[in-house]
Amino acid sequence: MKTVLAPKKSEKTKIQKLAFELVEKLREGGVVAIAIESAYVAVADPASSDGVATFRSLKVLDSDISFPVFVNEIDDLLSYLPEISDRDRLITSAFWPGLLNIEFKTNDVLPCNLGADSTPAFVMARKPSNLLLNVISELMGPVIYTALQDKNGKVLKSLAGLTPANKKLVAIAINSGVIKSTQQTSIVSCVESRPRMVREGSIPAFEIKKVIPSLQAV
What CATH number is given to the structural domain containing 120? Predict the structure, then answer.
């Protein structure tokens, strides 16, 4: 596993250069470890069979789950969803990037199966507050991800806690130091005609209702 120190937010040129390197590695089938708001996650290219094979060693993938994907903007999902409504655009413009996962129903046929053996029914999309990840998804489209665990089975907060087995699976790890945040993502389901709050995390329901008054409570 190669370890690279995370660039500062102000180092735009370094971020761009590193993003190109990581995109190349992902397209080659490598898995990348990177920090988001409150944990380290493993990221893979859903269109790479090698990447998906490695990713499967980190996460069990069933087609009936909501597949977690990072995107740079809602339009990245145009080929994945039956439609993107004005409501969908409104909620993402208000809360992305940030700690809001949004569940969508997928097309019957996808450009790829996101690593599943068949077309998954739902995707759980988010634009994280991470400039490097945003550039990566801008360059290559949606990427699949899963939270990594430490040696005690808890959410990974520092690369020092990465298990030896996972070190063998991760091609490049971006070291952002120890993550101290305990923030939790909020989840809204937009699968049905009326959006529904699935989990109230760092973004409370009342804030979302200001934008989407029809939101159903948890």
Answer: 3.90.870.10
Out of 58-62, 83-87, 192-196, which region has the weakest mean confidence (pLDDT)?
Answer: 58-62
| Six-digit token string for 185 | 């993502």
Name 179's Cβ contacts closer than 8 Å, sequence gap at least 6.
Answer: 35, 38, 39, 40, 157, 158
The mean pLDDT of the chain is 92
**What pLDDT is recorded for position 61?**
63
- Please state the domain count of the chain: 1
Place of tokens 């190109």: 20
Does some domain include residue 216? no
CB-CB contact of 45 with 143 (8 Å):
yes
In a domain, 98, yes or no: yes
Tell me which residue range forms the domain holding 59: 2-211
